[in-house]
Recover the amino acids of this structure.
């Protein structure tokens, strides 16, 4: 398949790059926007795009590539891809579902514990030698807290199962009520937020879920509530979140994602009740390699005339 051109966009991932270069005619561009001269030079040769999180693939990139046949996402989310344009042009789209479920769920639980037990602050307390002259104040436990989950899909379910191990009552909102579980279902996000101590965002990002966590939801969660976002930054109305945290109207937050990554509101940096991660929910060696293998298998299946393993479109 060395005559098939594959453009990789986004942050470098060594194993995936090596395998793409070994198997295909490999093009690499790590940032956006891609210069017009780069596109013009290679437009006829690019048959596939491998896209990482945050890389926008819209008409401005798709239209100049007459031979583009497939976009293979090195991620679960496809919110940065113009799906309507892909459908119009018959371009297939794949992602990497299920592979990162455990890591993202683990990250959600880690953020809960980090916020409630003030792990980051504890670490600084020891490093700054404050322990020599002071006692660290009491924190609060995760066990028994009411956990509400926005989106009880694969990742949401994995989070729920882990939270159950901490004796946390689980409630949720999803597109529809899920059968065969004992979790409490709520029909609105505000009602869910009013009835939980920790609200976790774990749904897909689409026009209906953008800013699903708004001022009303934050107020319902309240001054003792904690927001955990391992979904996408666009799920949360970020200015409202920042003001609620600064003013003490929200108890805390654990955030792996932001609206304008890698830019993070500076007002959050000085808050001890906030834990910030650089979108690393899926970032383990094991999961990265498994996701890369799935990307490669989808590409090879497509160009061999076989069925895609994980088609989105």
């Amino acid at each position: 398949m060395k005559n098939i051109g594959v453009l990789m966009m986004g942050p470098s991932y060594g194993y995936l790059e090596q395998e793409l270069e070994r198997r295909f005619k490999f093009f690499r561009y790590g940032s956006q926007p891609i210069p017009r001269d780069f596109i013009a030079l290679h437009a006829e040769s690019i048959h596939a795009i491998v896209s990482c999180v945050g890389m926008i693939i819209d008409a401005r990139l798709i239209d100049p590539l007459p031979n583009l046949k497939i976009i293979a996402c090195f991620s679960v989310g496809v919110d940065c891809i113009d799906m309507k344009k892909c459908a119009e042009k018959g371009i297939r789209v794949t992602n990497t579902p299920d592979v990162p479920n455990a890591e993202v769920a683990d990250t959600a639980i880690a953020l809960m514990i980090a916020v409630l037990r003030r792990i980051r602050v504890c670490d600084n307390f020891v490093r700054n030698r404050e322990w020599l002259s002071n006692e660290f104040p009491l924190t609060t436990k995760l066990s028994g807290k009411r956990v509400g989950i926005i989106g009880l899909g694969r990742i949401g379910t994995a989070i729920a199962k882990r939270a159950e191990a901490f004796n946390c009552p689980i409630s949720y909102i999803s597109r529809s009520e899920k059968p065969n579980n004992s979790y409490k279902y709520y029909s609105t996000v505000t009602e869910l937020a009013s009835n939980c101590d920790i609200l976790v965002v774990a749904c897909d990002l689409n026009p209906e879920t953008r800013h699903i966590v708004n001022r009303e939801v934050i107020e319902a969660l309240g001054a003792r509530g904690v927001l955990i976002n391992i979904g996408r930054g666009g799920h949360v109305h970020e200015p409202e979140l920042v003001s609620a945290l600064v003013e003490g109207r929200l108890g805390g937050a654990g955030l792996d994602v932001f609206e304008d990554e890698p830019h993070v509101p500076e007002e959050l940096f000085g808050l001890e009740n906030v834990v910030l991660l650089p979108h690393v929910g899926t970032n383990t060696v094991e999961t990265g390699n498994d996701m890369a293998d799935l990307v490669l298998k989808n590409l090879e299946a497509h160009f061999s005339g076989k069925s895609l393993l994980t088609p989105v479109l």
